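Sharing a chain and its predicted structure for anyone who wants a worked example. Both blocks are below, sequence first, tokens second.
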Amino acid sequence: MRLSCIICSAILIILGICGGVYALTGFDLLSFICFNRTTALRAVLAAGGVCALFLGYALAVLRPYKGLK
């Protein structure tokens, strides 16, 4: 479970960096990484959506912040 959270976090960080590059420069880094293939781009974005849902579920159900004071 911990490894899944780390992988999902890494994917979301990479997608965030690609989005930041696009917002600041106008260069679509994610499309460049996917070799300008629409299907690959949509698959990466769908994986990012699943990762976000999984991390939300992990935060809601597992409550890793419960022991913090």
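Comments welcome. The two ends are 23 Å apart (CA to CA).
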